[in-house]
Amino acid sequence: MDPELINDCVHCGFCLPTCPTYVLWGEEMDSPRGRIHLMKQHVEGTPLTPEMAGHFDACLGCMACVTACPSGVRYDRLIEQTRAEVERTHVRRPDDRALRALVFQLFPYPRRLRAMRLPLRLSAGLRRRIAPRLERINPSMAAMAELAPAVPARVRLPRRVEARGRRRATVGMLTGCVQGEFFPQVNAATARVLALEGCEVVIPPSQGCCGALSLHSGLQGQAERFARRTIAAFERAGVDTVVVNAAGCGSTMKEYAEILEGDWADRARAIRTVDLTEYLVELGPAAERHPLPLTVAYHDACHLAHAQGIRSQPRQLLTAIPDLELREISESSICCGSAGTYNLFQPEAARELGDRKAERVLATGADLLVSANPGCTMQITSAIRRRGAGALPVAHIAQVLDASLRGLPEVP
């Protein structure tokens, strides 16, 4: 934990109303200001107690406080450093250790996730029936069962997608772990949109996990290994711009130069990471937008809005589609409760936040919810289903753009 970063906090309290856990519980130690106070105590010699670790674990890492802070406090760096310290020194309960080992030996590995596709597809109905029983036995396992999406047929992407019309750029594309295995249709739509806008798209077959889940959970060594492998994959592909369609992945890749050292930090700086919406607005439209008669509610993913500062670009792309009406969600800056692995490790708090978000999404009366992150999609879909309010379709912004550019009558 960096004492200089800790001392940047002047304890003004502007972060309090933006912090999801403070909004839920009103506890000072479950606010950014309170957690920074605990960090300061530890740096000054107080041992890391289970109670302190619990307050750090309860943080979603949503970075809403970073947006709100008038003093520029780098809470994002502080919580990453603190979580690494927690993982180094705090002895967790055996059941907690087992759950974390399961998650981090499964989710960052696409091939292992792929092995789950068939069981998940066959057992979707069963999982929802047994979720209430699991809730009484193990809330984290119940959350995992409830969150798992209906898995579509696998989509095989080529290594290279040619630009349509005049080639305006050549870019790499990150496929991701959860996105690639559970939402392959989003990656396919992303590649088509980029190609229709004049980009040659290079998709390295061996890119693997970017390290986002590991970094945000304090597993610094694992995150660095994944980061180095990702950089090397795109270097071999010969691209210096990588387009990302998952908010958490894009946020982490933009931090590579900060988390790596020496030559690897320099190599990270040589590759530019951009979110899909950020890149498309910067590139400017080339292909015709066809009408989509839809009312759409757009959900701000925390690692897009707060960590990357990308808010206007998705809205600009959506409102440029003829006949599409954009509706805002109240409390848009409050996290949905997904936060990478948070909804598995802190299922009760995540459920409260998911239910709160679902209520506000449904209040828009929109035909479609648009998201920019697979974790948010699963979290909000699960919360809407829990309310028994009927299914509200959820799509990635790439799918909406893809439907408009191809002149489809609706978002598939």
Outline the structure in words.
It catalyses: (R)-lactate + A = pyruvate + AH2; glycolate + A = glyoxylate + AH2. GO terms for molecular function: 4 iron, 4 sulfur cluster binding; glycolate dehydrogenase activity; metal ion binding. The strands form 2 sheets. The chain has a 5-stranded mixed β-sheet. Strands 7-6-8-9 form a 4-stranded parallel β-sheet. The protein starts with a helix and ends in a 6-residue tail after the last helix. α10 (124-137) runs antiparallel to α11 (139-147). It has helices spanning 3-7, 20-25, 32-43, 50-57, 64-68, 75-89, 94-104, 110-115, 117-122, 124-137, 139-147, 178-182, 184-196, 212-216, 220-237, 247-253, 256-259, 262-269, 276-283, 302-305, 312-319, 342-345, 347-362, 374-386, 397-406; strands at residues 160-161, 169-173, 199-202, 241-244, 272-275, 294-298, 324-327, 368-371, 394-396. The model has no long low-confidence stretch (mean pLDDT 90). 53% of the residues lie in helices and 8% in strands. It has 4 domains: 3-89, Alpha-helical ferredoxin (Fumarate Reductase Iron-sulfur Protein, Chain B, domain 2, Orthogonal Bundle), CATH 1.10.1060.10; 95-147, no CATH class; 160-282, Rossmann fold; 290-406, Rossmann fold, CATH 3.40.50.11810. It has 412 residues and is of the alpha/beta class.
